[in-house]
Amino acid sequence: MLRFKLKYLLNNKQNRLILILTLSVSLCITIIALFSYREYRQALDTELNTPNVELLQINLDVTNRAFREADNKAVDLSFNPEVLAYISTDAEHAGIAAAQPQNVLNTLVAEPDIHSISVIKFQDHSVVSSGYGYRASWEDAPEHAWSEWLEEIKEKPLLIKRRLYTGTDTRLTNTELLSLARPIVQNGEVTGAVLIDLDYDTLFSKMYTHLSSYQFVYNLEGDLIYPKLNLPFPLEEMKDVLSEIDVSPFAHVQIEGQAYMANQAFSNVTGWRLVSLVPMKQLLKNVTTARNMMLMLSLISITVGCSAIYYYNFAAFRPLKRISKLLSPEEKGTGHGNLYDLEPVIGKLVGDFQSKSLVAEWSLPELRSKFLSDLITRSIGKQETETKWEHYFAGWEPGPFESLIISIDRHSHWVAAYTEEDQQLLKYAMNNIVVEFFEPSWRTVTTAPRKDCVALLLQSKGGSDSQNLHEEALKLADIIAEVLQISVSIGIGTEAPVIAQVARSYAEAEMALSYRLYEGYGRVRDYSGLEGRLDEGSGAADDAWKQEVLHALRVSDAATGRQWVHRWSAELRKKEVQPQKIIRVLNDLLEEIINITASGGYTLPAELADYTWYQVTTLDLNDIEEMLCSIVDQMSSAFEVHRQSKEYLLVQNLIEFMETHLQENIGLQDIAAHVNMGVSSVSTIFKEETGTTLYDYLTNLRMDKACELLQGSSLKVSEIAQLVGYQNENSFIRVFRKSKSITPGKFRENSKSSNQYADLPKPHGSGVSEDSE
């Protein structure tokens, strides 16, 4: 009976259709569930470890900051005059010489995470500590566990050790310390050391933790630094984890039979390794539940399908069978229905599928354009590139590819000639011309990475190749110029064998296009023809002319400014420095002119009224030279008017007074009294006019004068300090070191050996320096 019923059900066309649909839907749901689960597992490798990496980096920054602050104190102490005097004193007078360092150490030990600071003297084994003062022999010190690794201090510029407090203070028994040691070097020999003991618990209490992850800190020798209690895993298991992850930032590991995601980061200050472990079970909990639910849904769909078959045969066909029997009582009812009832459903499914297919087809050009934009800007990774390539470029070959850039010449002039709406229409028309021109022989994708250009990705259909691409590009430039009245320049990169190298080819096309600076407009340039010129013009663009132009503007000397512009332009034509380097220097100059104009309240030149860097990247050298000369003329006139103002004359009077009385111990009150004004008013006017403070300007004058004397005379440092207005030699040395990042003695020594300043000369008219404390 069962076999009869099954045979009957399967012989019915409608039943077979429902069964096929049911199994298809169930199979799709199952495939989607398994595929989603697999994709989620793969996504963990690239995305889900990001929060853990960021947390490690935050904790790394926390520990680095603490150790860097302590290390800065150690370095300062190693150069402190009182500390050096104590180190240099013989054993008989060491106790007396230790008084001053003791005061310095007591001052620096105020931070809560610093337990104590000690200065160790190797010559007579004496020590000075903020905790217990001076001891003639470090063996007599209440706490000297550090003596066991003194030899390591002599060999390493920075030493960090974890240890227990072993002193006599019962309140600190079993206290964990992190000791940071810096050697003290005199005349090329290690004569002592600065030791800073950091409180272990206070330091690591600043670290951020995540409830679902475990964090560990190891030193260079592989010893566990953190945590010290309640270890979640055996140390032997962790050694295997460290060996397995090695130097990789990310790996999957097994600990006690459980899967974990391991991330790690390394400190460039302490050399420590920070490791985090996240249970994979927790990460996969939700997706596993979703997978199981979808598999259950698949089983439910099969059940529903079987129920539908049952209902269809024993309920839906019953009226049909009765009518058929009444109309044809002599014929035996077959029990077969028809497909009329399924027609509306199938029609709807087919219609929906067709609509979605059309939407996907219409969206494909935009998706390809976005893909090309992301590819040339390097905004997508290798895996995403391959995935999108397979989805968006069906019918394309794996390679090779050609990259082109079509840029509108003199873009700012072109923009000024049309409304924004007309610009969009012309760019749309240019894009259509480009696509239609290449369509017969090339597969084409376009995108607009910048306002002035269109980037193309081309692949030959077999009717053209890279050898005649240059000639085709020339024809295209002529067509655009004839039809749209737009002059364009085109850059062509070298052939990219695979899609992953298209970004490199695009960069080469940009480099080729940049030589519009020398060769002019409406040309097609191949990167392959520039290789020799790139080597010849690989030097840095000289920006000394920039300072001279700015100086000419400040003194309202338009003729000299134009002369420097012409000289710079002629030098560029002679050397052919890479255009991209020139554009950077030129952009810096124009930005500085804009800043000077804004700070001084001047009217911007017409060429800079709506300045963007497109304005110079799409110009040749002749137009740039003409633009700069025009800017120099306008700005010189504005500065000339300003030079007649009473504020400017007042500032010049102040500067002259400072230069005349540089050797005297003058202050802000003396300078203000020279013009019979208050300090506040004078400081405000001076700051507005020069962009720097009176104190900074005076300090700069003194330091520049000191550099001249150090380099050109044999006077002592103390005598030079007097000649530039400092009564105290130590004050002069401190200010000089802060201003020049070098001591006066070292500056003189460098000047003798290299015959040049330690710092580059200040630009004309500049008095800006960092504020002194």
Architecture overview:
InterPro entries: CdaR_GGDEF (IPR041522), Homeodomain-like_sf (IPR009057), HTH_AraC (IPR018060), HTH_AraC-typ_CS (IPR018062), Tscrpt_reg_AraC-type_HTH (IPR020449). The chain crosses the membrane at residues 17-37, 293-312. Residues 652-750 form the HTH araC/xylS-type domain. The chain is an alpha+beta fold and 773 residues long. It folds into 6 domains: 2-45 and 286-338; 49-61 and 209-283, Beta-Lactamase; 79-203, 2-Layer Sandwich (Beta-Lactamase), CATH 3.30.450.20; 363-536, Alpha-Beta Plaits; 544-643; 646-754, Arc Repressor Mutant, subunit A (Orthogonal Bundle). It contains 31 helices and 16 strands. The longest helix has 43 residues, at 285-327. Mean pLDDT is 79; it is low at 333-343 and 756-773.
